[in-house]
Amino acid sequence: MSQSNQNVKQDSFPTVMMMMLCMGCTLGGGEKRYARVFQMLVDQTDQPHKLLLTRQLLTLLHQAGILVGYEDHLIVLDPPFRRIAHVPDGKRKNYLSRIIYPFLAILDVSWYLWQTWRVVHQHQPDVVHPHLNAIYFSLPALLLNPKVRHVMSANSERFRPSKGHNPIGAEIATWLKYYAMRRCHVVDALSEARKEAAVDFGISPEKILVNPGSFTDYSVCQPAAEKKKWVVFLARLIEAKGPHLLVQAIPRVLSEEPDVHFYILGEGYLETHVAQAIEELGIADKVTFRFETRPTEILNQSQVFTSLNLLNSYPNQALLEAMGCGNAVVATDIGENYLLVDEKVGLRVPPDPDNIAQAIIALLRSPDLAKMQQAARRRVLTEHTPERFFDYITQVYRQAVR
Predict the structure, then answer these.
(1) pLDDT at residue number 182
(2) Looking at residues 340-345, what average pLDDT do you find?
(3) Full-prediction pTM beyond 0.85?
(4) Sign of dihedral through CA atoms 254, 258, 264, 269?
(5) Closest Cα to residue 203, out of 221, 224, 180, 232?
(6) Residue 293 burial by CB count (10 A; 0-12/13-18/19+): exposed, middle or buried?
(7) Which of 215, 276, 297, 377 is 20 to 30 A (C-alpha) from 10?
(8) Which residues does 319 contact at the CB level (< 8 Å), separation at least 6?
(9) Which fold has domain 3-215+385-400?
(10) CATH number for the 218-383 domain, one of 3.40.50.2000, 3.40.50.620, 2.40.110.10, 3.20.20.80?
(11) Which pLDDT value is given to residue 169?
């Protein structure tokens, strides 16, 4: 434990209530990151911290080996109304569900608003730090509990809907996010680019702190002595993550490197589309396609990882895991990816299938592949550590109560 972490135990430290609430939960890097931060808060400070989260998200985190044994610090919500329509995970399954789902969703939102206010009022933490949809659900607590200090996280540069896509719901969400961030006491920005976007959004730069980069649980990152000729994609199956780019690149790679096997690991609204594309391209025997709760078991054996985001995703949690497991990287040259991926650990390319295929082939054939894999692991183990992030987040919470 670092000296600063030891000081956390010795000094008076604020009680923190984190919130991780969602209407239809999936398990991504942000959820893993802040759940692990909460574990560190409980382990390294002598305060009754609480984490308010949905049962669905807790199940996913437990499957990933996170938050196991922390039940005394968890407040678990199970929104009641959409279950009436038998709509697990927010998916509409039949005609009746499609009719009544919007009304039940409104009831669930109202229930979340009441529950977050009730829990904050009951426990009176010093600091509330919401994530995901909780940034909206925590607004009553922000307004009605003025003594409680609030931290908001700026994890995206997209504060407003894209031009030409301005539905009423998105505009309302944008306004609520703006209002919450204006009223909160500290903004935790995921990177300098997120800080700049928040300032452009109208948030005062004086209350924005920029974190030093993410981290992951490197104890499960144990690269195999002999790596297999595997290429891995690990992300939510949404357009912004670029799974379609890899699917289109695979036949081109196989035409020159037929003994490569690909893993596409994730879930999301493009799941059916990706599965159909794999079948139509005739590559199903060369692709393992599934959701994986413990992806390091594959990443420890693979040689190359693909990070194909179409938006700025730095610092990408899956990318940190892959580098920690000793993978060379093909990344899209977008946003702040250059802060993690350079020629020492892999290749950055434009977001199109041809360039991605050529980069994968180049890495697999490179005589320096092993050196890149070692350099990737060394970089995240020294620059993106849990200790460094924990020192930062404790600074955020201390500043919030000043």
Answers:
(1) 86
(2) 96
(3) no
(4) positive
(5) 180
(6) middle
(7) 215
(8) 305, 307, 313, 329, 331, 340, 341
(9) Rossmann fold (3.40.50)
(10) 3.40.50.2000
(11) 61
